[in-house]
Amino acid sequence: MSDALLEVSELRCGYGQIEVLRGVSLRVAQGEIVALIGSNGAGKSTTLMAVNQVIKPMAGSIRFAGESLIGLRADEVVQRGLVQVPEGRRVFARMTVLENLVLGAYLRNDHDGIATDMHRVNDLFPVLKERQSQLAGTLSGGEQQMLAIGRALMSRPRLLMMDEPSMGIAPILVTRIFQAIQQLNQEGLTVLLVEQNARGALKLSSRGYVIETGKVTIEGPSHELLNDDRIRAAYLGD
Prior knowledge:
- The protein has 10 helices and 10 strands.
- By secondary structure, it is an alpha/beta fold.
- Helix 3 (97-103) packs parallel to helix 6 (141-153).
């Protein structure tokens, strides 16, 4: 795939002496939604944190838009257009919705562009506009997830990595968030989606990877993975 926007090859990393990723390789092309699925502890979140340099890899390569990310600071990764929506949302609870969104643009100084993106976020999630003066910690889980996505969009990413966006959220809001991801992708945003909701992730994405105990074991078009007996038995409850 020569048009890969993100290319991870033989990535190895962990915590202390414990190796979590044991040679993970994956690619995300410009304009794709790619799903990364697997059980708890398989290495999904660690993969994202290694890609954005929150965790420093032990070995392997990470290239984004043709340039290596190895050794960069996390803020330098964001400046290049690779942004993560973390697991658990991690909004600033004692700050307002508006203040959280403004913080998402902290590396930018293009005031007109920031204003345009604020309108874009409010159009995508109208509830954030309605509650812009409300403390983020008083929002529901689903609303906080919308805020976390909106905050990430304020940095104007080229590729958005999303870590468990459906976790702990009411089903009706999960549907709304997945619709928003699809809309953003249709507008040109590339997405790497980590999800335990394997069925939802594979329906939303064009390709998928399955990670087990720190290694990618299965990959392919999402419609094929949805019909793979191994995946149906292990992750889809069929």
